[in-house]
Input
Amino acid sequence: MRVLIAEDERMLADSIAEGLRAEALAVDVVYDGDAALERLGVNDYDVLVLDRDLPVVHGDDVCRAVVGSGALVRVLMLTAAAAVPARVDGLRLGADDYLTKPFAFEELVARVLALGRRASPAAPPTLERGGIQLDPARREVLRDGRYVHLARKEFGLLAELLRADGTIVSAERLLEKVWDEHTDPFTNTVRVTLMKLRRKLGDPPVIETVPGVGYRIP
Output
């Protein structure tokens, strides 16, 4: 899952990003509304964590632009305004969810994961295929009932392959969804991470390579 954080309080934004990355999510960060719109026009995000009071371009205008574009990204709006009318206004703008500051980080993570599951096509809470069970909320993976400990990127890569439900996922798509914008697009990190993931999942092999096209769990 790839997340964009648009928050002008830099320490808060960076703290949220660090915490979400610990949950095996790919996270990009911007500090004003103009930069948010620029990133949204270039990258395919699943969830936008959007501070309502952004500088340069207000968060409300960012939300309107997202909704008007027809993008599938889900919007979690953050604000210091806790009054009911303020929350209602945010939802009427098109936000999918609303969280007031200060908030418990665990709640933010739960809401981001829930919104990610509502992306199109909707993903179930637990992903299962080929004897593998993956629980994104608990960050647990089982292979034929055996617990498998995965590093963050291995977990994220496996989740994307399971979400594809048997269809082929290109290396470029995996790089876009599991790594952030600072990753070299010409890197072999997808191949290396897949090699480690296959080793941890064990035999019989469950991830199939389709030469010149990508990868899948049939």
